[in-house]
Amino acid sequence: MQAFLKFAESLKISARELAIFLHNAPKMYKVYKIPKRTHGYRVIAQPTKQLKEYQRKFIEIFSTQMPVHEYAMAYQKNKNIQQNAIFHKDNSYLLKMDFENFFNSITPAILWNEWEKINPGVLNIIEKDFFSRLLFWNPNIKRKKQEKLILSIGAPSSPSVSNFVMYGFDDLITQYCNAREIKYTRYADDLTFSTNSKNILYPIPAEVDKTLKLLFGHNLRVNNGKTVFSSKAHNRHITGITITNNNKLSLGRNRKRYIRALVHQYQCAQLDKNDIQYLKGLLNFCKSVEIAFIKSLMRKYGEEIIENIMKE
Prior knowledge:
- It is a single chain.
- Helices cover about 50% and strands about 15% of the residues.
- By secondary structure, it is of the alpha+beta class.
- The strands form three sheets. A four-stranded antiparallel sheet has the order 4-5-3-6, sandwiched between helices.
- A hairpin with a 5-residue loop joins strand 1 and strand 2 (about 40-45).
């Protein structure tokens, strides 16, 4: 129990106090839904303030024992969707895949199975149970006899846990791709593969399925409806960024049209505070991807309007 005792000490509480707190921790979430871009909705489970603090402390203490693969591009310093797109931009052929219900498919059993491969014997079974209650959410809060712990979208520890859990997968897929001169990255639940060699991407979905089954059984699955092959003959899109035929990053026509509409609404005082903050985020995204579009907005609407949005 050394790890648990040290963790309690880092929180400046007794081990008994921590154990009592963690007993109910999987239920300490505020749950709400947000609509997805296409259809349906995403369930967000937001931990209480105190639980968030404890989750952040866990990641801080155990980060050295939870490696993240170099080709995991999300939630990492100096890595983002722009860097993810840049990595693939010079390749002509592209394959995009993503996981089905990614965060909520990750369970304590998956975490500790991957943990033991890298940190054998560091935590005992009791400590794993305590830390499972710290890191995972119980969506069946109304069913007292049925507790199902899953990773939540909304906990500050979930990105690090998910990246760590996928370390072995990322490594195996990277080895497969390197042997075939294929580039691979993973941005959270989005997998991207690219190459300049025609037709060699087609076996990859089967290889991904085989690797997932090897590591996780049937717990993590690909959303086959979102598997897309593309090339320079069609638009190439990577995590929301368009790659032009001359291998430049672009926001894409639809997103530009949408941003222009929002700027116009701002100019007419038709946006509320939340919408303005959303627009500000979009403009910051534009700066990192296609600065020329920001300049075109300034010419059309005036520098003062764009600067005022950025100051909000």
